[in-house]
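Sample entry (358 residues):
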Amino acid sequence: MENPTDRPDRPERPQRPARPVAGRRFYDGANRPVTPKQFRPDREASEFDDRPARPKGRGGSDNRDEAAGDRTGRSDRGESRPPYRERSEGGERGSNAGGERPRYENRSAPAASIDMLFGLRPIQEALNAGRTLEKIFLLRGTKNSLVTDISAAARAAGIQVQLVPVEKLDNLTRKNHQGAVAFVSPIDYYPLDSIVTGLFEEGKVPFLLLLDRITDVRNFGAIARTAECLGVQAIVVPGRGAAQINGDALKTSAGALNILPVCRENSLHETIRFLQQSGVTIVACTEKADEAVGATEIDFTGPVAILMGSEEDGISPDLLNLADVKLKVPMSGQIQSLNVSVAAGIMLFEVARQRVNA
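Predicted structure, serialized as tokens:
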């Protein structure tokens, strides 16, 4: 049988140029200089490479590349694969040299919180040093002198203390919490009496905002942003049942919580009575009111404090009975309900409008 390679009519295979060598310059067909890395634009043997093509598998592509795929998540067969990040044994990103199955990065794992304290002794020392704590969780059923001292010091400072099961503490941190976890507040709280006294001494007219059990951190942040823009001088929140001031609240407030003083009081009942004795008018925003804001000639140019209620049931009935004025936001739609941050913005705008005109 005749060998096909011995036929005289078979054209001679053109000689390929040598492989690139460091220090030499090469040019492509358009007489443009190329670097040595550009001499192999794909994984097949190019016209600039004198090495033979790699053996192909059943799919017609390189076996090694087909098994690995490219790092963009697409194999040579055109099949889409989810991108992954490999980690070596040392924890750094790199190739999976050990032959283990690539591990997907856990994007849902919570990041380590830097505003958390755990352990009885560190929390007690933080209280003694006067650090501002947002909330303290203590293991239910624990009885010792440290727990008693922490509870007493926290309640004296107006810090909320909750007795929780061990599962709650384990969900907060995997460290050795010793039955106690506390969140450090990103802001410092101010005493309300000092702020009110300082405003009168400086000749300013108090413009305050009282929030009764606002629990959503984003609502709280949005209210703080609006309040700072419209000239509110301080926000008052209760010691229990208020939204935790955290990173979400700071972000939603656009930095207003770093400027606007926040006062945390143990009892809003005593706070309202103190403000009334100081000559401040308490104006409650509630849908149960008969008069609408803007429809009556109520003077807001004097000392005033706007009272807003929670997202679920509004202002507490006992606090509502203490208010000097009750107003509602006029609405003509079918829903007849506003987000508390929007309602607060409407009330604060009316006060700011009258003060600007005055």
